[in-house]
Amino acid sequence: MWLDSLILFFSGFLGGILFIIFRxxxxxxxxxxxxxxGAYLFSITIVHILPEVYVQYNEPFRIGGWILAGYLLQMxxxxxxxxxxxxxxxxxxxxxxxxxxxxxxxxxxxxHSFLEGTIVAHPVMTAxxxxxxxxxxxxxxxxxxxxxxxxxxxxYQKQKKVxxxxxxxxxxxxxxxxxxxxxxxxxxxxxxxxxMVMLYALVSGSFLHISTTIFFESSPHHRLEWKRxxxxxxxxxxxxxxxxxL
Length: 246
Hints:
Elements: H1 2-21, H2 28-56, H3 60-81, H4 94-98, H5 102-121, H6 133-156, H7 161-187, H8 193-218, H9 226-245
Helix pairs in contact: 1-6, 1-7, 2-6, 2-8, 2-9, 3-5, 3-8, 5-6, 5-7, 5-8, 6-7
């Protein structure tokens, strides 16, 4: 738990610090990294998380409802954070980004990040796999560009560097806190097995929204470039290989 918590924290913190050092991180090639991470997150949700939640709970209709709720919840959180968790900052909404209140932004991103951490806890999801390494890698791949996008917002807002780093730390802490709290609740049975499964279904819906949104935003004209296609294939392949052999 503690090692995973450190990995989750530093995956985001490193991305944010690298943006401060190298401001040109967010170039066109960065979109290919986003597509790769989105494909991985989508694939790991399909081949790992969803099979487990359906196996662990004997009412598939209710599980489907929680997945849908997670998808809709992420739509709401994305509207609060202007979609920064997707890793995208569009040129046409820089004015909107500059007017974002840091507190509101951190609330939206914080809830999303907290929920991400809950699914790494994995205390009861052992029917198919006895590990959550593939999920951990997916969140790391997702948090790195999200932290870069967050720091880009603070750059556009002309925030002081010290304040921006403080906000970054708060953002990065949310995911390991989610992991630690969920692990404690699961191991102490304060959160039942069914409750844990429904929580994971909720988060899987959030992952589906984020990953598919990355696909749509990476190709706004609905034209799939071969470089993006390669990124999608590589991301999906990595998820499958990890699930089969990790």
